[in-house]
Amino acid sequence: MKNAKKCQKNKNSLQKIVDGFDNKKNLRESVNQIKNNLTRRAKIA
Q1: Structural domain boundaries of the chain?
Q2: Nearest residue to 33 (alpha-carbon basis) of 44, 22, 24
Q3: Over the Cα atoms of the chain, what is R_g?
Q4: 19 vs 23: CA distance, rounded Å
Q5: Cα dihedral sign for 23, 26, 29, 33?
Q6: 24 φ, ψ to 5°?
Q7: For residue 32, what are the CA distances in angstroms to 19, 29, 38, 41?
Q8: Are 21 and 28 in contact (CB under 8 A)?
Q9: What is the dihedral of CA 35, 38, 18, 30, to 10 degrees?
Q10: pTM above threshold 0.70
Q11: pLDDT 10s per residue in the chain (45 long)?
């Protein structure tokens, strides 16, 4: 029973993340921003 509750909690967390992505109309822009940040960090490191 405990595992079922935990599973439901995980599902809810995932759903929140998915909803967050749905809310971002400019997802491509966000991805590019993340990529740029990673490249910048790689150059510094």
Answers
A1: 2-44
A2: 24
A3: 17
A4: 6
A5: negative
A6: -85, 105
A7: 20, 5, 10, 14
A8: no
A9: -40
A10: no
A11: 577 787 788 888 888 877 777 666 667 778 888 898 888 888 876
Name the one residue in this structure whose structure tokens are 């822009």. 29
Please state, as a whole number, how many other Cβ atoms lie within 10 Å of the Cβ of residue 25: 7
The CA distance from 3 to 21, in Å, is 27
Distance CA 17, CA 10 (A): 11
Distance in angstroms (rounded) separating the CA atoms of residues 21 and 13 = 13
